[in-house]
Amino acid sequence: MNITNKTVLVTGGGSGIGYATAKLLIEKGNKVIISGRNEEKLAKAANELGAAYIACDVTDATAVNNLIAKLEADYNDLSVLINNAGVGFVYKLGEGANAVDKARQEFETNYFAPVRLIEALLPLLKKQPEAAIVNLTSNVAFHPLVVLPTYSDAKTALHSHSVALRLTLSTDTNIKIFEVMPSLINTDATKDMGGEQHGLPPEVAAEDIYNGITEDRYDIFVGEAAQQYADYFADPKAAIAKFNQGLY
Fold first, then answer.
1. Where are the transmembrane segments (predicted)?
2. Which domain holds residue 30?
């Protein structure tokens, strides 16, 4: 897919992978709108990037409706949606873990929010000569990490949704569905996970996302995720044990 002179929405674009991806897409000649909950942070990032911004909590249905109305009014050539916004809790399952409340927050941001946004934007995306939806899942989408248990659940759900959506839209639309599966990336959100010590720079993920879209690679692996994926399908039990070594 040609991703030049496109209008792109990046959720969670104020920092991390979203920011790096927005920056690269602008450098490649695209018009980018970033969204996020913190308007002050978002405005600062947009000014640095030369991007537009729309403050929006993607877990709030009313806020999403307002976002859609703004996009339809001011950016009716929008052709790429990048669902990057996410949240995760580092903990272990067990007595007193409060897993339900943590899972609810993770699913609201990591699963229900992109599902809602995709459905709401389909009419606009269908109007474009070519369009794409890019869902950021994770290497935990194909095998769980025990210290990110319900985050793994939510990303697995978005992975499944992405596959079903790709098959469904391939029959009667020009919308391509890409799934990005990063390994650990160094962002503000991954500090509790060792991101500063062991994570890849977000610019690496941005490059892989851009190259994956231009090459029509619907499964985009970042960092160690490609080898982890291959290991999992070669020997699931061994791969999961290796992935979680020393954590349980």
1. none
2. 7-243
**What's the total number of domains in the chain?**
1
Q: Which of 91, 151, 210, 229 is catalytic?
A: 151
1 assigned to some structural domain: no
pLDDT for position 248: 83
The verdict on whether 151 is a catalytic residue reads: yes
In a domain? residue 157: yes
Check if the beta carbon of residue 210 is closer than 8 Å to that of residue 40.
no
pLDDT score of 197 more than 70 = no
2, part of any domain: no
Q: Please give the pLDDT value at position 186.
A: 82
Give the DSSP letter string of the chain: ---SS-EEEEETTTSHHHHHHHHHHHHTT-EEEEEES-HHHHHHHHHHHT-EEEE--TT-HHHHHHHHHHHHHH-TTEEEEEE----------STT--HHHHHHHHHIIIIIHHHHHHHHHHHHHHTSSSEEEEEE--GGGTS--TTSHHHHHHHHHHHHHHHHHHHHHTTT--EEEEEEEE--B-SGGGGGGTHHHHPBPHHHHHHHHHHHHHTT-SEEEETTHHHHHHHHHH-HHHHHHHHTTT--
CATH number of the domain bearing residue 149: 3.40.50.720
pLDDT at 157: 98
